Structure formats: structure tokens, C-alpha cells
Amino acid sequence: MSLILYYHPLASFCWKPLIALYENQTSFTPKLVDLGDENSRNAFFKVWPIGEFPVLEDSRKDSKTNKIIPQSATIIEYLNLHYSGSSKMIPADLELAFETRHWDGFYDDYLHAPMQAIVGDCIRPADKRDPMGTDEFHQTIRTSYDILEKRMTGRTWAVGDTFTMADCSAAPALFYADKVEPLGSKYPSLSSYLARLKQRPSFARVLEEAKPYFHMFPYKK
Predict the structure, then answer these.
(1) HSE (side-chain half, CA atoms, 13 Å) at 10
(2) What are the φ/ψ torsions at residue 6 (nearest 5 degrees)?
(3) For residue 80, with 0-12 CB atoms within 10 Å meaning exposed, 13-18 middle and 19 or more buried, which class applies?
(4) H or E element at residue 67
(5) Percent of the chain surpassing pLDDT 70
(6) Mean pLDDT of 88-96
(7) 3-class state of residue 3 by DSSP
(8) What is the DSSP letter of 109?
(9) In order of start, what are the domains of the chain with their CATH numbers?
(10) From 216's CA, which of 68, 123, 154, 178 has a CA 20 to 30 Å away?
(11) Could you give the residue ranges of the DSSP H alpha helices within the chain?
């Protein structure tokens, strides 16, 4: 058995499977992809021609061909199915499993994606930027904060009483969203949740590994 994760330490969606891997101390080989380097880029595109990371490669002994699993949530689902450890990223209870996938998708679609759109807009040439679209993405984040503040009041983790895939999703989404649309004092429950996530050893490790690359984060308010 050999797992390879193609990723970049600064890429927010790569943090999701990294957190899940570290939660269960799953053995894997990290393969840093530098899309600005021709050799690294070409090697990665041979594995996954779409060219987006994270991507997990699994060379299982009982399979004649390596499995290629793209997309952060799908990777975590795969790990939960084939390399499940003591921390279950998807609860066995069907209702909790549904909630986990629901809130995982919420963080991805209504916090993570608009944050990335805002950051992406800021690196465009000035005459290609979309101020109206960016304003709408900021509003989506603020509306999501309102929903999540109510959701997290009285809660420790996103779903149930344990750390799940939804928390793996929340960690990068909240961390970077706070950079482009600061939480401030308006969202005490959500701010406390983000603080707990930062203290979680698996996420703290991801943040520590990303530190050398934080200067590359392009958004400047």
C-alpha cells in the first residue's frame, strides 16, 4: 500500500485531506506540486490532466492499476472507506453522516468558494477585475457567517460531538475567509470555533507547514 498526495501547502482545498490524514496518522507520501515549474507541472498533469489539486494516488496491492482520486471531499470519503482510523471523518450514524456531508458542502460552496473568487479577482489585471461580483462574494460570506454563528452557538464541532469531515472543511474555509472578510467581534461563537480549529493538532500541523508560503497569499485589503 502506498498513498501519494499531490498538493501545495498554501492551497486551501489541499488542507482538507491533509487534516484528515493527520487526524488518523495515516501514512502517505506528500508530493508538492509547483505549477510554476515546468517539470513539476508536467509530471502532475500526467497523473491528473485536469491540473487541479489535491489529488490522491493509491497504489494498492490488490489492484492492477493505481487509483487516482481528485477533489478534497472525495479524498476524505475514500480515506474513510479504505483507510479509516480511530477518528471517523464520516460518522456511522446515517443522520449524522448526512449532516456531515451537508455542512462540508456548505463550507465549501458558501464560504470557501467565494473566498477563492475574491482572492482570484485581486490577482487579475486592474482592467479585468469585477468589483460588483467581488462585492456579491463578500455579501455571501457575511450571510454565511450569520448562518454559521447561529449554528455554532453552544457547539464544539460542526456536527455531533466529534471532529468530522465538516470540520476539515471548516478549518481552511474559515481561516482564509477571515483574511478577506474579518470575523471581528460580531461573530463570537464562530470566532471561538476557529480558535479551537487552530488548536487542533492536525490543523496546527497544517498551518505550521504552510507558514513558509504565507507571504505568497496575494490578497491585500
Answers:
(1) 12
(2) -90, 125
(3) buried
(4) strand 67-70
(5) 96
(6) 95
(7) strand
(8) I
(9) 3-82 (3.40.30.10), 94-200 (1.20.1050.10)
(10) 68
(11) 12-23, 38-47, 72-82, 94-107, 113-122, 131-152, 165-180, 188-199, 201-210
